[in-house]
Amino acid sequence: MSVYRFVYFMCFVMSCSLSTGLFAQSRNLDSLFFQLIEEAEVYEDVNLYGDCLEKLTDALNFARISENREQEIEVMIKIAELLRKSDDFERGLEMLRSLNDSHKYPKLHVQKLSRLAALYNQGMILSDEEKKDSLFFYLNQGISYAEKYNMPIEEAAMRNELGFIQGRVNMQDQGMINLLKAKELFKANKDPHNEAWVMANILEILLGRGDFHKADSLSEVLVEHIEGTQWHAVKSRIYAIIANRNSKDTVAHSYWMGLANGETVEHVRQNSYDQMSSFQTIYDTEKYQKEARENARFNKEKTLELTLQRTRSNGLIIVILVLILIAIAFFIWVSRERQLKRRLSETMEEVGVLNERYHMLIVESNHRIKNNLQMIISMLKYSSKGLNDSNQNALNRMAGKISTISALHKHLYADVHNEFVSMNTYFSEIVKLYNVILSSDFEVVIDIDDVKLRSERIIYFGLIFNEMLSNTIEHNTSDDKVISIQVKPVSEGFKYYYCDGSAHEKDVKKGTGLELIGELVSRVKGSKYSFDPKSGAYSFIFNRE
């Protein structure tokens, strides 16, 4: 097994071990959390709100230790509901308003909005417009979230609450819409008990609007719907509403009120029975866990301390593992750096040898190219003997272009393949070759600043210069045989200026020589190109690159 594979294997093993430990710790915290929630619910059932709050506070601490924000929000909503039941509305509102990130958990967010509405509803009076607006705002927002995330039971519950309140504040039409929608949702989700509560609210609105015909029809349906059920609270409310409907009929009113009171008694008895069962559960638990109860707080503190200690230990293990991995990585990096340096040294030696060979090849190549071009020039010069002036001029032009290329290769040969070539040196070489080829009596005055161009680009400047010299020799009519070539820096770059001081023929602009010069100027990205046939002056602007 290679070193790299061994390192990767050890890292994988340590990561798995650490992950297993963290997972086991997480499961242990979750188990304690849910146990505390169950105990809190038992205390809440028997209205022991102090004990319930203590359990919920412990559960909140566990959620924070395990950094489980979802559980933390869930417990805070339960605590706010407990504060509502104990009439501490302001603290409950303050706690729920602090849950700014509850929207990350849609179901909990809907629960939060519902509990906010319940706190405003229970803590307000009908004339309190500001609280009523807040109540409607939270209920409508909760309904929108429930619709968006497909939570029909939650949506139905909030529509029922909103419809009930709207019916009490002279908004019966809007309330009826919400109650009918709630009824459909409860029915679709097979919840007849809550459906009966909604129908009771609808019956109350119908009676409030004086729609007695529909109210009586609904009363018959409701009575049949709740017949034979153990829904004592809803039955008591429905019978009381029907009794109020028959307030003018003493017998009927007494009959329905008797039924309502009987169901109220049954409801209280059922609640008492349920509370006794919860007390029995608490008693049995305390009976078999007396010692644990006496030391519960101490054990909880120790558990928290142990949990924190495990967290710190796990953090220390992670730091140690990171340091080990860093040390291993550093060792590997040093080994690779040494190998790379050795390989780089060997590569540099090979490159040096190849560079020397390349250097020799370039020198030999430029030397042979120069000699071949000189041979071609000599052949053209020999061939021009005995030809008429037109043919001889054509051969001279061709020889001039070849000499321009030859001059560059001579310079490259002399400077051993220099990337940049001096324009002054190059143009001087062209002039020397021209004097050899044409035996011209022209004097060329070169005034060029220290301008160096890349070899692949300067060849075009040489061809431009060559073409201008050819045009001068062919068309110059001045007695003053002086040619001036200047290259000077200007704000835009460099200015190329050539002048032979002679007037050229009127149709010279139509010649191929000037067309070729213009094309070559565009090849070197020259600008502001101009030619004056009266003085034989050319000029254009170019940049170094």
Q: Your description of this structure?
A:
With 545 residues, the chain is of the alpha+beta class. Helix content is 76%, strand content 7%. It is built from 18 helices and seven strands. It has a five-stranded mixed sheet, covered by helices on one side. The protein has a two-stranded antiparallel sheet with strand order 1-3. Helix 6 packs antiparallel against helix 7 and helix 17 packs antiparallel against helix 18. It is elongated, with a radius of gyration of 51 Å. The chain starts with a helix and ends with a strand.
Task: Summarize this structure as a short list of keywords or feature phrases.
545 residues; alpha+beta; 5-stranded mixed β-sheet; two-stranded antiparallel ribbon; 7 strands; 7% strand
